[in-house]
Amino acid sequence: MAAVRRRGPAGQQRYFKRTKMFSALRLVVATTASCVMLFSTGLQAETLREALVATQKNSTAIKASRARLRSQMEGVEQARAPLRPQLNLVSSVNHRYPVPDALTASIELALDLLVYDGGTQQLAIQIEQANTSIAKQMVVQTEQAAYLETIRAYFGVLQNQQNLALELENQEIIQTQLNAARERFAVGEIARSEVDLVEARLAQIRSSVAQLRGQLSIARESYKLSTGQYPDQLETSQPQPEIPASLDDAMAIANRMHPAIQNAKLAVKIADLNIDRVRKAARSPKVTLRAAVGGNRLLTSGQSFEDTWSIQLGGQVPLYAGGLRSSHNRQAVANSDAARHELHRIAASVLADATNAWTQLDILDSIIAASREQVEYSRTAFEGVQVEANLGLRSTLDVLDAERDFREAQTRSTNAVLDRNIARYALLASIGQLTAGQLGL
Question: What is the pTM of this model?
């Protein structure tokens, strides 16, 4: 173990001056960075709500889901159409052999109306209406996923900006320490190895700064992908969203409002309606009314030899279709069973996600409390190591290690706070509450 080099009164006085200089430099750098951030935030700070509004406006996923909803709404109209009168113009040209000059043309205007089908078509309408409700829930689910992606991108940019600012501040401090170490080496107070240690630490920090710059660029691209625009100056102070008071409340809300559970319930409803539709179609008669007016013309002479009009009431009763109807019924029952099993699976998955989100929030609360204590203790330890180093009781490596521990504690504390912000929104998404109305959009 190397002997500890003790310094005389003159040397101690110089080191105390350098310690004060380092502390003053840290204060100036931190204050300047804070002032710049507050000044720019006050001028053109983009809030999280503005980012979410941009997502609502520019997200291609949301636009696609809304287009699918409009398409499904047309399915309801298509299901209603067979119950309305159908008007058709029917024409034909005929030639009978071996009758000479028997080329005739006929034209008929026909009105068809479905009189009775046992309620089969009404059930088809109800099925399409339920499918429309599913499409609406899919829009909500897509919006929630897009909002959560934007929230993660927003806080991801803030996290990378703050991490980069802390590392740049650390780089300035280590650079000052390196300059001081070179001065001390020049007068023979320290060995060359101590200067090398500071230079190595500075090179490490420069590498970390380069990496953080790259991560910030990636975060900015993620933000643009979510919102359709690059972030400018983001507001660092955001209001916290309201969350349920307890895990039981969260699970009750999830079971009642989560789009995935609602869609699974609608799928069960559709399967049951389809069973009724198949059974009614298999045993119910179908009655139609047809009214037509028209005429026939002999094309070879241009003579009209027959004008007609008719009213026809027709019926069709299903008797046997080669087992097709029975197969359709068995298929509908199997689909109903599958939909019920899928409902149980989805409900269990959603409730598990809600539980995990709640647990993650509890974990982050504990991490924040512990990291704040770590910041205070590591700051005190760092200042103490600096004083001991000035007295010759600590080496340059000890000072560098204490400095690194302090900076890492600061970074962990900052990241934990931002992660908790994300976790609160993730909890809302897990219970189906990350909606435009809940977010005030």
Answer: 0.80
